[in-house]
Design goal:
mainly beta, elongated, Jelly Rolls, 21 strands, 303 residues, 2 domains, five-stranded mixed β-sheet
Amino acid sequence: MKRLLVCGMVVMLTAVGAQAEFTLIGQSGDSVGPVGDAGNTILNHNFAGTDFVPQEMVVEGDLTEVQTGTYASEARFYVTDPSAATWTSVGWTSTGGYTDTIHVGPSTQTMAGLGGSALGAWSFEMFESYDDGAGVDQEWSNLNITIQPGDPPPSLADFVDHTYAGVFSHSANNSDYANDMEGGTGDPFSGTSHPFGDVIYELNWAGGDMFLELLFTHTDGDLDLFLYDSPQPSSPVDYGYSSSDNEDAEYLAAPAGTYYIRVDGYNSATYGGENDFTLNVTPEPASLALLVLGGLAVLRRRR
C-alpha cells in the first residue's frame, strides 16, 4: 500500500523582492520502485503563503541503503504541483553503490513544465529509477525539500541600449545589435521567430497619445517593432509586424511612465544588422530632455 504522509512542519521564507519559498523540514520515507509503486512514500503539502513562480527544488537529507546493491543516484522524486502539472527529478547525488547511510545535498535542480503558481496542493513521490528487487530499496530521513523561485527571468531594462531622446537613425552592422530578448532561459517572449540580436530603447513618457514609426527598407532585412509598458511584460502594448517597408505602433492616452521600444529582425534578418533604420516617436513627450551635440542626440549606453 502506498504511504501518504501529510507534511506538518513547514518553514516559509520571504526572499528578495517579496518572492517566497517553502520548505518541508525533517521528512522521511521509503523509495521502493518506479513511479506509481504502491510502496513509494508520497509527501503531501498544501502551500498557502505568498505566491511565486516555482522554478527550483532543493533536496538535503540522509539516504540509507536497504536493498543490497542499490545506487544512491537512483533515488528520485516525482513532483505534482497545484495545477496537476508534473516534473520528474534526476538523481540528487552522483554516488553509486554504497553501504549504510550517506548525506545528500543540498542539491538543486531546475523544474520545467510546471503551472506557474505555488499556491495549493503539492505532492512529492519518492521513487527509484531502477528497481533492485522486492521491498524498499532506500530510505530517506532528516529530509528537507525546498521549492523556490530560482533566478528571476530577464527584464527588458537589462537590455536597454539607449534612453530615447528624439529621432534615432541607425546604420547597418551597428554594434548596438548585441542583445537578444527572445529564446533564452526564462525569456518573457515566446517562440523563436526573432532569434538574433535587437535594440531596446527606454522611453520616459509624460502621458498622452503615443505614435511610433520605424522607417526601413524591407528588402534589406525584415524589421519588426514592439512597444511594452513593463520591463518584464507578458505581451506588447502594440506592435508593427508586416512583410513590407516600415512599421508603426501606437498607444492612445498612454499613462505617464517608463516604456520600452524594441526593434528586432524577423527570422533570417540578422538582428537588423543588414538594415539601416530610423525610429520616430510623436508627439515628442515634454518630459524628455533632448541633449544636442552638433545636432546629434547623445546616447546613454547601459552595458
